[in-house]
Amino acid sequence: MMQAEIAVLRFGLGARPGDLAAAAVDPRGWLLAQIGGAVPLAGDAQLEPSARILFELKAAREELREMKRETASAATSALAAMPNRNPVRDAYLPHYRAQVLARAQSAALTSRPFAERLVHFWTNHFAVSADKGAVFGIAGSLENEAIRPHVDGRFVDLLTAVEQHPAMIAFLDNQYSVGKDSGLARMAARRGLPSQYAAAGTPRREFGINENLAREILELHTLGVNGGYTQTDVEGFAQIITGWSIGGGKGRLAGGTPGRFHFRDDLHEPGAKTFLGKAYRETGRRQGEAVLADLASHPATAHFIATKLVRHFVADDPPPAAVDRVARAYLKSGGNLPKAYAALIEAPEAWNPDRRKLKTPEDFVFSTFRSLDVSPQRPEEVVATFALLGQRQYTPGSPAGWPDTSTSWDGSDALLHRVLWASRIASRYEQGLDPVDLAASSLGGYARVETVTALRRASSASQALALLLMCPEFQRR
Amino acid sequence: MHPHRAKSTRRRFLVSAGAVAASVALPQITFARTGGPARLVVVILRGALDGLAAVPPYADPNYAELHRELAIAAPGRMDGALGLDDTFGLHPSLVFLHQRYLANEVVVFNAVASPYRDRSHFDGQCVLENGLAKPLGTADGWLNRALAGLPGGAQHPRERAVAIGQNVPLILRGDVPVFSKSPQATPGVDEELLARLGDLYSNDDWFAARLANALQTYKLGDEGASAADAPAMSPGVAARMAATLMRSAGGPEVAVIEAPGWDTHANQGGAKGALAQRLQGLDRALRILADGLGPLWPQTAVLVVTEFGRTAAMNGTRGTDHGTGGCAFLAGGAVRGGRVITDWPGLSRTALLDNRDLRPTLDLRSVLKAVLDEHMRVDAKTLASRIFPDSSGARPLKGLIRA
C-alpha cells in the first residue's frame, strides 16, 4: 500500500506530474537508482564559487573597517548617517539570493529528488547560518561545494570537506583560534608584539584557543552529545585543529589562497596531543584530519547519524530497529554513505503509510513547486516566501540546524502563514489547472475522498488549489 | 538553604541594601490590583548569555583579570556598570532594567544554573525547558505542565498561554492547548477559504485544533505587526506582540518570548560591541513590555533565563566559551525586587568549576518554583511532583513576589 507515494513524498521532495507513476513500477529501485556520484544543482544557475566571493569581498571589508574607524573617531560617522548601509552585507546579498533561488530551482526540477533531499539533510546536519555576517554570502556555498560532491561518498570525505570549508571555519570561529605555544604566540611574547587582529589602541592580549568548532564537530557532526567525550577532549581537539583557517588575510594572516581553506602552521599548537585516550603525533594539518577519520569510523558516530537519518525519513521517534539497521550498514561498510542509505530504504518501518511527518516550510514550498510543475524565477520572491513561512533559507537558529520533529513546526500561527502563502500561490497558478487531477498526480492514493469532494465544491479554481495545498495529506509527508 | 553553603568561609549570602529599602518601602506602596489573575512572561535567551558581562561582579578581585577586555568597569568609571550593590552591577546597556531595580521591581540572580552540567546548548536548553534534571525523558515543557496546575486548571475554556512566534518552543509544548502568534501580520487571508478549511479538517483533530486557535487570534495585534514576510523578529517586536495579546479581552495570562544570538564565542565586546547591542535590544524589549502591559504591570512577573553561563576567562578570540553558572532576572510590578540574590562563590582559581566556569550555587528551579508557587498560585503538590520532578533539592525561594 502507498509504496510509490512513500518513495516520492516521504523520501523525495513531492510529486511532479508523472513521478508517482514512474516510481510505482519499483519504488525501492526508483530510490536506489538515484544514489551514486555527486549531486549537482539541477537547473541552470551559475553561482560564484566561495573563494571568488570571499576574494571580491576584500574591498567591501576594507570599506566597512574604514566606516567603523570613523564611527570610533567622529560624532557623526558614516555608519550613523546610513544605519542600514553595510558594505559587506551589500556585497554578499546578490550571492545569498542567487544561492537561495538556485536551491529552490534545483528542488523543483531535479530528477533525483531523494538525492536532493539527502543534500538538504546534510546541509542541516552541518548547519551554518547566514545570519552571521561573515557567512551570509557563502552559506549556500557550503552546500554546493562541500556537500553536493560528497553526499553519495564516504562520510569521512564529506566531514573533512565540510569542516575545512571557509563557511564552517568562519561560522564556528576557528580561523583565529591560536595555540598558546604556537610560533605566533611565542614570537609575540618574545617581541612584545600586539596581536595582529587586535583593534588599534587595545592592549596586547594573550593568544588562545576557541573551542567552538571542536565542540560542535563532536556534539553535532559526529559522536553526538552522549558520544563519550569530555571537556578535556573538546579542548584537546580544539588544540589539534588550531591553524585550520582561511587564506588571504591581512598582516600575519596573509598567505594561502584567498577564500580557501588554509592551514596556518604558525597558529598551530605544536606537539603530540591526546584525544579520546589516543595519542596523535604532530603532523600539522593532518593531525586534525586523522581525528576526523577516527571520528567517522566511531560507533557513536554511526549511531548518531543513523538516528538522525531515521528521524528524518521515518518518524520523529526513530524506531530502534531501523536505527540499528542503518548504523550497522554504516559501520560494516566503513562509513560508506550509500550503504547506509540503502539500509534505510530496506527498513520496513520506513514503508508504513500511517507514519507521516508534518512537512517543514521547506518541504511544503518545494513540494508545491513540484506539484505545480513550476520553477521559481525571482530570487527576492523565494527569499520572501521563506521569511513568511518562518524558515529563512540557510538561517537555522543554531548550529544544531532546523528541528526535525513535527512539534517544532505545528504552531497555530505557522498554519495561518501557510494558508496565506497557499492562497497567494493558488491565485497565481490557477489558470488551466484542474485541482482534482492535480490531487491525483501530487498525492496519489493519499488523496482522501473528502478532499476531492471539497475541491469539486470549491467556489473557484483558485480556492480549490489553496484547499489542495492546505489539506492534511498534502501538509504531511 | 544549601548544605554546602556552610563549607565556604569566603562566600557571602548576598542580599543587597536595596532589599532593606524594599521591605521598608513596601507598606506605602498601593497596588493597582485589578483583581485579575497574575501574568507571567518568560523570556528565553538562546545561546547562553554571559552572566559575567550582564551582571558584572566588578568588586571580585579576579574578575577584571579573567574577563579582560570583556569586563565591565565599576560603577562611576568610564563605561562602568550600573550599580546594584557593592559587588555587582548591571551591564551599561541595561538602563531600563536598572531603573526598575531601583524602583524595587527587579531581582537579579547570580551564580545560578539549571541542573544541567555539561556544555551543550541544545541539551542545556532542553533541560531549561523540560524541567527535568536531564535533557531526555519528556516531550513537554514545565510551563505547559504548570498551566494544568493553575487555579481553574484544565476546565479553563480557552488557551491561557501564547508562544510569540510561528511555532511553540518546548517549554510550552504539552497536553494543555496553547497557541502561537508571530508579529508577522497575515493580511488578507480569505475568510471563506478558512471556513472551508475548517470543514476539510473536521476529520483530522490535529489540524482542526490548530486552525481553531489560529482563527481565534489571527486579527489580534495586527495593527502593530510587521509585514508578513519581514525577516527575523527582534525581541522588542515580540514584546510588543506579547503585551498586545495579554491586554486584549480574554487574552493569555502567560507568554513566552524567545531571543536568539547570545553565543558570543568571538568579539563579544565590553561596554560597547556585539553583546552590548544584544543587551540593549533585551532592555528595549523589557521597556516595551512594561509600557505595553500598562495597568497589568503590577500583577506581572517577567522571568529572563538562559541555558547556562560562559567561561570566566576570555578565550583566544575575544569571546567566551560555554560555561555553567550564569545570571537570571525576575522583573515586574508583582516582584519584590531591588535585590541581588546570590551565594557568590567568587572567581578565584579554586572557586571556579572545572577550573573555568562560575560555580553555580543556586538551582534555577528554586526560582522557577517560587514564581509558579507565589505568583501563579500553582498548587504545591503538582509543582513538586509533576512540574519539576526530581527537584526536592531545589526548594522554592520565598518572598520573591509581593504579598
Fold and architecture overview:
- The complex is a heterodimer of chains A (477) and B (403).
- Chain A has helices spanning 3-11, 19-24, 27-32, 50-73, 78-81, 87-109, 113-125, 139-147, 155-163, 166-171, 183-191, 212-221, 231-240, 285-296, 299-313, 320-332, 337-346, 361-372, 379-388, 412-429, 435-443, 449-457, 461-470, 472-475, and strands at residues 244-246, 261-263, 273-275, 278-280.
- Chain A has 477 residues and is mostly helical.
- Residues 75-79 and 196-204 of chain A have low confidence and may be disordered.
- Chain B has 403 residues and is α/β, with parallel strands linked by helices.
- In chain B, 30% of the residues lie in helices and 14% in strands.
- In chain B, β3 (82-83) and β4 (89-90) form a beta hairpin.
- In chain B, α6 (142-148) runs antiparallel to α12 and α9 (235-247) packs parallel to α10 (274-293).
- Chain B is globular.
- Chains A and B meet through α12, α19, α20, α22 and α23 of A and α5, β7, α7 and α8 of B.
Number of helices of chain B: 12
| Percent in strands of chain B | 5-15%
Low-pLDDT segments of chain A: 75-79, 196-204
Average pLDDT over all residues of chain A:
92
State which percent range the strand residues of chain A make up. Answer: under 5%
Helix content of chain B: 25-40%
- Helix-and-strand structural type of chain A: mainly alpha
Structural class of chain B: alpha/beta
The helicity of chain A comes to 40-55%
Instruction: For the record, give the distance between the C-alpha atoms at the N and C termini of chain A, rounded to a whole number.
Output: 15 Å
User: What is the C-alpha radius of gyration of chain B, as a whole number of Å?
Assistant: 21 Å
Order of helices and strands of chain A: HHHHHHHHHHHHHEEEEHHHHHHHHHHH
